[in-house]
Amino acid sequence: MTGSVNTTDAEWKLVEDSVFSLFDQLPTDAYTPIGDRLTDLGFAEIEEEYPIEAQELLFRAQGRSLAQTDCLYRVMLAELPRELRTASAVLLPAPGSDPASPPERAQGVILGTTSGTVLVPLQTDDGIVASLIAAERLQAVSADTFDPTVRWTHLRHAGSGTTEPVFDITAHWTRAVSAAQRALATELVALADQVIRLAVEHVSVRRQFGSHIGALQSPRHALANAFATVEGARALLGEAWRYGGPMGAQAAKATAGRAHRAASDVALQVCGAIGLTSEHDLHRYVRRGFQLSVLCGSPAQLESQIGCRLFDSYPADLGLPTVIASSR
Q1: Residues 6+ apart with CB under 8 A from 133
Q2: pLDDT tens digits for range 114-166
Q3: Residue 104 and residue 98: Cα distance in Å, rounded?
Q4: CB of 55 within 8 A of CB of 12?
């Protein structure tokens, strides 16, 4: 667990098993609102007592099971004013755009398909505002996704304006985006775990020239390096959950995306042609990770933002802050 939890390991293991079991029952090729199921599980009490651990657990379960739920909206809405938490979805910035700065017009993507009310953030001269708009008032086009099992929808407002109440969320939107980035990073690390698991299983049973592939140095070293990369991303993610903050969330999301890519490259190499077939499960975790990696900022985009922020924060005649210092 990420934080300090005043419960026994055995008790928390029961909670984890219950959540994993719930997500394992969900379809992997359809978007499923999960609020009622979590309520039946008594998850509200767990979230109230252990908010960080509960959120982290949901996205570990989601990555592990390949389920598609509204959990991302749950963590974002929890950071927004209470009047907006009845929304069925949050309009997310389209991939490639800056997640911290919503567009001036109502346009973006949502997970799944349109229904209920959509929280629409907008950038104005005075800051960021949001309205709850009925889904039927938004023009919807299904997104062409890299992962064919993922259901995303492009939305934009059909009219020239909105008559719904407008809420100032300038002080809240950055926290909501950071929460989403930490959640997506957790899911990416969980997907990378599954990628490595499948690769290890393959090299443990596949034989070549009379020996298991896993006995050869090349695949062993490649998998060890991938594992170390994922563990590094997990450690950074733990700090992001623990301390919060936009830069930590950006770094965690970027590093998790890179780690998933590194694990996928190695797994596809050591698994060979079988890993590319639809009959093998590897492609499911690879594609899902590549799809999620672009949501709320791709690794390259987030790294660029972090770099710009560091250079903007320090005068040109001063060096950048020391990230790693030698003890000698």
Answers
A1: 106, 117, 118, 120, 157, 162, 164
A2: 888 999 999 888 899 999 999 888 999 999 899 999 999 999 886 655 557 88
A3: 12
A4: no
Q: How far apart are CA 323 and CA 328, in angstroms?
A: 15
Is residue 12 within 8 Å of 5, Cβ to Cβ? Answer: yes
266/222 Cα distance (integer angstroms)? 6
Q: Amino acid identity of 212?
A: H
Helices (H), 26-169: 35-40, 43-49, 51-65, 71-77
pLDDT in tens, 35-93: 999 999 999 999 999 999 999 999 999 999 999 999 999 999 999 999 999 999 999 98
Residue 164: alpha-carbon gap to chain centroid: 30
Q: Give the pTM.
A: 0.89
Q: What gap in Å lies between CA 225 and CA 232, rounded to an integer?
A: 11
C-alpha to C-alpha distance for 257 and 230, rounded to whole angstroms: 10
The full set of domain ranges for the chain reads 171-313
| β-sheet bridge partners, residue 134 | 117
Q: Are 132 and 113 in contact (CB under 8 A)?
A: no
Report residue 202 CA to chain centroid gap.
27
Which helix or strand (DSSP H or E) is residue 199 part of? helix 170-205
Q: What is the pLDDT of residues 240-294, one digit of tens each?
A: 999 888 999 999 999 999 999 999 999 998 888 777 788 889 999 999 999 999 9
Residue pair 296/173 in contact (Cβ under 8 Å)? The answer is no
Mark 103-142 as b/e (b = at least 16 C-beta within 10 Å): beebbbbbbbebeebbbbbbbeeeebbbbbbebebbebee
Please tell me the CATH code under which domain 171-313 is placed.
Answer: 1.20.140.10
